[in-house]
Amino acid sequence: MAKRGVPEWLLACLGTLGFGITAPVLLACFYVSFDIDQGMRGYADDARHMSLGLALQQFISLELTALFLCGPGAVILCLIVYAILRADPAAAQETPDEILLRGRWVGAVIAFANLPGYLSGFVLGWERPLTELRVALLFIVAGVVSGSWIAWQAWRASHPNAPFMPRYSLTTLLGCLLALGAVLTVFAPAK
User: How far is CA 12 from the centre of its chain?
Assistant: First the structure.
């Protein structure tokens, strides 16, 4: 078996921290920063006049807060998902598509166990309509993206000649585009 420089479990954890926390933070920033009626919750009087620097400052502060609060739980859950995907003896015989699908499902379900992530409801505003749906979508997005990455790393651990990134098809790209459109519709500003 070929020896790689960085172990797959570490790549799984780094990808989870990068993708699984950044994607929900970007969605939350998109929803909150450009809400014309509410402004930026005290950051600016009118979100239409928000500067790029202020938007970047808000994103960085939210990202660091999410990494601090949700990061440790995300790493623990990542290692659990990695162990689940590696523990199955049939996993070595799975195709990449099968393990990616299984990783998406396991990741989406187990993402709800990261309890500090529920604090995102305060950022989104619990008083707003459909906030519960938005919070659930943040968990699902984080779980599916992270679960896919973790599954790929678990598959690579058993297949040393596998490339760094999984192959994708036109169907995968179309599915991602439709899913992104649906999530952005739910997170679109009110006006």
Answer: 13
Domain ranges, residue 25 = 8-186
Q: CB-hemisphere CA count at 13 Å for 181?
A: 6
Phi, psi of 41 (to 5 degrees): 50, 50
Please give the Cα distance from 189 to 107 (Å, whole number): 28
Q: What is the C-alpha separation between 186 and 78, in angstroms, rounded?
A: 27
**Count of beta carbons in the 10 Å neighbourhood of residue 67:** 16
**Assigned token pair, 18:** 């990068």
CA-nearest of 190, 180, 176, 143 to 47 is 190
- CA pseudo-torsion sign 159, 162, 164, 166: negative
Within a domain: 2:
no
Q: What pLDDT digit, counting tens, does each position of 70-125 carry?
A: 889 899 999 999 998 888 766 667 888 888 889 999 999 998 998 888 888 888 88
* pLDDT tens sequence across 110-145: 989 988 888 888 888 888 888 888 888 888 888 888
Would 191 be classed as within a structural domain?
Answer: no
Closest listed residue to residue 31, CA positions, set 180, 140, 190: 190
**Total of domains in the chain:** 1
Question: Do the domain assignments include residue 51?
Answer: yes
